[in-house]
Amino acid sequence: MRSTYRKILLKREANRKMIAVLLDPDKCSGGVLAATISVLKTSVPDFIFVGGSHTLSSSDLFIDLLREETKTTIVQFPGNASQFSTKADAILYLSLLSGRNAEFMIGQHITSSVAIKKSGIEAIPTAYILIDGGKPSSVEYISNTRPIPNDKKDIVLSTAVAGELLGMRLVYLEAGSGANTAVPVEVIEHVSMGLSLPLIVGGGIKTTEQMTAAFDAGADLVVIGNLFETEMNKIAQFVECARMYNEQE
Ligand code: 1GP
């Protein structure tokens, strides 16, 4: 088993919750990037995710910069095949299972599969499930798919379990970056009870209380991006909160 996925499994087995800081190269450059890196040196999350639904800047250069400055595991979170970079430790090989657009379920994968395999990078097949976050998300717009209504927890669970049976290794419940409403705890709980895979939750998380509520409900890894784009100093608060949460367990 490759090392990034093993890290997730080992932490999960030890009942340790994880936090990922999501950086979009388009939104994090110059002084903002320098300030973010400076915080990330002292407040170290479990992972740095790099990507976005519609990212135009080079992931290669961005990841090179991060590598020079931090030792954190870097995971690509690509919006499409063009964002693929050989520089990260791993790539979430996302299939948008909540939608019915073949391009984002398998098309982009075919475009990038041979290059990913040749590069030797660790690809982690991930069931990516978009849930209504109370406003139209970039994922919804770019993928031309509809999110699952956030009160339809059985549909979310059935979608997640379909991903598990198809051999995917992670499930990512996504409310969309900057969502008004994060994934409801009832949905997280329902999915985590019926699923054997590690569960990632992201989209619209703005407070440490929301993060710990997601952990309590069964999320193994919480992803936060939007909030830190304007308030990067809050990374420290969230990393410390996750650390204390794990110490209490
Ligand atoms: C987005 O789940 C991630 O794809 C994180 O969401 O940017 O709202 O924190 P935010």
What's the arrangement of secondary structure elements?
Layout: H1 3-13, E1 18-23, H2 30-42, E2 47-50, H3 59-69, E3 73-76, E4 90-96, H4 102-119, E5 122-130, H5 138-143, H6 153-165, E6 170-174, H7 185-194, E7 199-202, H8 208-217, E8 221-224, H9 226-230, H10 234-248
Parallel strand pairs: 1-2, 1-8, 2-3, 3-4, 4-5, 5-6, 6-7, 7-8
Helix pairs in contact: 6-7, 7-8
The protein binds SN-glycerol-1-phosphate.
Low-confidence stretches: none
Q: Report the end-to-end length measured between terminal Cα atoms.
A: 27 Å
The tally of strands reads: 8
**Total count of domains:** 1
CATH architecture: Alpha-Beta Barrel
Structure description:
The chain is an alpha/beta fold and 249 residues long. The chain has a single domain (3-248), classed as TIM Barrel. It is 45% helix and 17% strand. The protein is built from ten helices and eight strands. The protein has an eight-stranded parallel beta barrel with strand order 1-2-3-4-5-6-7-8, surrounded by seven helices. α7 (185-194) links the parallel β6 (170-174) and β7 (199-202). It is globular. It starts with a helix and ends with a helix. The site of SN-glycerol-1-phosphate (1GP) has 14 residues, from β8 and α9. Residues 22, 174, 177-179, 202-205, 223-227 line the site of SN-glycerol-1-phosphate.
